[in-house]
Amino acid sequence: MVQALAKEIELRSKSTSNSPLPTPHNEVIETIYFGGGTPSILEISDLKFLIDEVYRNYKVVSTPEITVEANPDDLSYDTICQLANSPVNRLSIGIQSFFEDDLKLMNRAHNVEESKKCLEIATQYFDNISIDLIYGIPNMSNEKWLQNIETALSFNVPHISSYALTVEPKTALHSFIQKGIIPQPDDEVAQTHFQILVDKLSENDFIHYELSNFGKENYFSKNNSSYWLGKKYIGIGPSAHSYDGKNRGWNVSNNSLYIKSIQENKLPIEIETLTKTDRYNEYIMTGLRTIWGVSLDRIEEEFGKTYLDYLNQQAAKFIEDHLLFVDENILRTTKNGKFLCDGIASDLFLLNLE
To answer: Of 162, 195, 244, 352, which sees the most CB atoms within 10 A?
Structure first.
């Protein structure tokens, strides 16, 4: 698999305008992100090898953000030390909760002691650390959620990503809910937890720069920000997605088919060319989730007056309800609108112009 990943990096760098989703070698790489699974099971030597392959095939900025996602049980003292001595300069750690019952409910492999120990060590070796926390867990009181946040803050991490619990089919959690062992997650509880999170992190100098992401100044995720700002990105590996500003591509998800295709010097990718309406909808969806909002000037320049008039018409009721506001020709969510922004965005989408 590692050899196939390296080969795909090379194949993608040699893409031409005639090949699917061209990503030629003169593209400048700003961030490298190992995620979308459990990349921390790779040997550090594998990570270094793949980073070297990126440098070999592309231009890379002088100080790229290089992130590895990891679970606490994968981050032993030795692993953290080895990562600190590699080009990796940012860790994203899947803590989820600092309570054992929550971790068992979510079927996590790590325990609270592992979480705290890995953070104690990681914060000694890494300046740039993000942790994930989950809210809206059944039977989680407001006090318990606040304790989770305060424990996270005690480690002085500069970035926190936090998501409402979602119940996926065919999981242990889904089974518990179906059997009535635990209650269904409650949207009102999740919204209350979200407001507690926003208020507490704001008090501690975190900037709420995207719906689910909070960072101290200069610690926003450059990788994730590039998605929300509509920058190009190259996805390497099974199921990986790519975007070049006009086309979106996704690799085959099956590992064996992926490797076989790469060995035959073929990119195992499907392509979708986005219509103007697709691009408008994506900009609305991502823009409303961020502090950068939706530029009405950009809407008019890039999409035309018809799109701008439609947006203003659709946004009017949300502005009246104090869920959206316009400041310096930027459409943004209010504090009350933030938690609802995905639903608001869907009402602003244009479905049938093209």
So the answer is: 162
